Amino acid sequence: MADFLKGNQLIAELEKIFEEAEEQLVIISPFIKLHSRFIDVLKSKRDNHKLKITIVFGKNEEDISKSFSKNEFDFLKDFPNIEIKYEKRLHAKYYANESSALLSSMNLYEFSQNNNIEFGILTKTTLVGNLLGDRIDSEAFHYFEQVINNSEILFERIPLYEDKLMGLTKKYSHSEIKIDILSKQLGSKIISLATEKANHKIDDSNIGFCIRTGVKIPFNTDKPFCESAFQSWNKYKDKDYKEKYCHYSGELSNGETSFAKPIMKKNWAKAKEKK
Asked: Which of 1, 166, 179, 262 could form a disulfide with 224 if both were Cys (CB 3.0 to 4.6 A apart)?
């Protein structure tokens, strides 16, 4: 069930979300300034390539360093599996790992934690779908999933793996920066993600698009997600959940696509030829 938190209990549960994250850590806050104890917790997870960290921050469009400083970025950018996104309208705060989530009034900002009157609602993921806490968790997860998907990606580092035993297993090799707009943009105006995408032409005839994030992936209607999006979808496994992009063309689908139907109807004929 959902629990109401305040004061020291709120800080303790937020720290616990960081500590217990092994597969997923979601941080959504307009302002990001890590408290020293959160830094200490994250340091212990720096080599965990299985932990996907997703950060969304906002506000201060003309000078984003007021919301997300270079110090925080320098600390976080070396984590092997991380994406950092920006949403200028963001005011909500949400913190989650694979088993619990915190909806709160509190920014991930030391001043807020030390000086403001704040509260939080803690929810747990359960196996019983009709519990109040589980409903809140599910609804919040889907809502903030859309916030994440609709935010501009400014930085992404992904883990890379080597095939072992004839491809039956994979071994972590290293991580690689896939997108880095943030390094150049701290302290200046955000460049639109649409502009960034326009600078990269698609030259692979077998390319497809993740139906949740729009990033380029191999064309495979049985696997229409990139790895991070699949991990997100796999939490609830809703095959009919409305997604954002067409797997064939990469264009916005306005909810027409899903895991069960990853290609827009108008593209079916062309997609069959691509198969």
From this structure: 262
Q: Is the pLDDT of residue 105 over 50?
A: yes
What is the pTM assigned to this prediction? 0.66
Give the start-to-end residue ranges of the domains of the chain.
3-155, 201-275
Class of domain 3-155 (CATH, top level): alpha beta
Query: Terminal CA-to-CA distance of the chain, rounded, Å?
Result: 46
Amino acid at 269: A
Summarize pLDDT for 137-166 with one digit per residue, the tens. 788 888 999 999 889 999 999 999 888 776
Alpha helices per DSSP H over the chain? 7-20, 36-43, 70-76, 110-115, 132-150, 182-185, 193-198, 227-233, 268-274
